[in-house]
């Protein structure tokens, strides 16, 4: 993860969740279907968490195009 963070010059720590505890708590570890085959995976979702630790916005089914604008608008609002 350190290599990825350094490559993209991220200024925040990245976390790992190999046991899926956090993924399951947020409800994003879900059964998915691709080409008729079912498997477990992460549902792309963005959460904005306020300074008090409470979730202020949830963006389910994230698509790359336009998503950053949605997030920035929510942060400004």
List the helices and strands and how they pair.
Layout: H1 2-7, H2 21-25, E1 29-34, E2 37-42, E3 46-49, E4 55-59, H3 67-76
Antiparallel strand pairs: 1-2, 3-4
Quick structural overview:
This protein is 27% helix and 27% strand.
Question: How would you describe what is shown here?
Answer:
By secondary structure, this protein is an alpha+beta fold. The chain has one domain: Glutaredoxin. The protein is built from three helices and four strands, in the order ααββββα. Strands 1-2 form a two-stranded antiparallel sheet. A two-stranded antiparallel ribbon has the order 3-4. The longest helix is centred in the last third of the chain and has 10 residues.
């Amino acid at each position: 993860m350190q290599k990825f963070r350094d490559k993209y010059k991220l200024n925040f720590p990245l976390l790992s969740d190999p046991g899926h505890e956090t993924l399951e708590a947020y409800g994003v570890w879900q059964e998915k279907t691709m080409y008729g085959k079912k498997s477990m995976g992460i549902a792309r979702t963005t959460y904005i968490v306020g300074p008090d630790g409470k979730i202020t916005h949830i963006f389910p089914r994230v698509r790359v195009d336009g998503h950053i604008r949605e997030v920035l608008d929510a942060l400004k609002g």
